[in-house]
Give the backbone structure.
Amino acid sequence: MFGNLKIGIRLTIGFAVTLILLVVVALMGYTRINALNTEVMGLVNDKFPKTVQANDMIDAINVIARRLRNAYIFPAAADAAKELDAVTEQRKIIAERLETLQKSVTSDAGKAHLKKVQDARAAYIPQMDKYIEALKANKREEAVHLLQNDLRKTQNDYMSAINAMVDFQTELVQKAGKEADAMADSAERILLILAAVATLISVLIGWLITRSITRPVGQLMEGADKM
């Protein structure tokens, strides 16, 4: 294979092949690590934050429910007004989280879940506003009726829609985690295989080059001994 080539050319070919194999291993490792990094960044910066935002909405709805109940229970007008002011703060939080989700949700399934949340919210807000107006007008019987019927139903529907979205995003997070784990295992296997192949090829080429050099030298030494 190398018999007709000069020693310098033989060594150059051996080093070049070894270098090419190292470059191939390095590029494969970089490509796999980059793909894994993309998957992890999507998990950290996209999928998981959506679950956090949806849970923030659930927390805010629960706070609103307590504040609305307290506004009915507290007899003092000042205390009731304080509770209703806190409701306004929580509604602002929900609106901000919804706006963020509208910008970040891109999949058709995610948009469908978000649409259900928005529809449930559109049914819930008028009932909440009617309840607040009844309290402010001191129509306590009407307020209790709303609290026990329409307001409670629309609130439960609202919570169910958000919980469904949380479940959907949680499944995406779990799926992305499994894919990242599988990708890491695959990258490890591929790099090990490539490293083993590169080592074998390097050893083989090194042996061939060494043999192509030492064999003629041995023959020359044998001829010199005969002389």
Summary: Residues 150-226 form the longest helix (77 residues). Helices lie at 7-73, 77-104, 108-136, 140-148, 150-226. The chain has a mean pLDDT of 83.
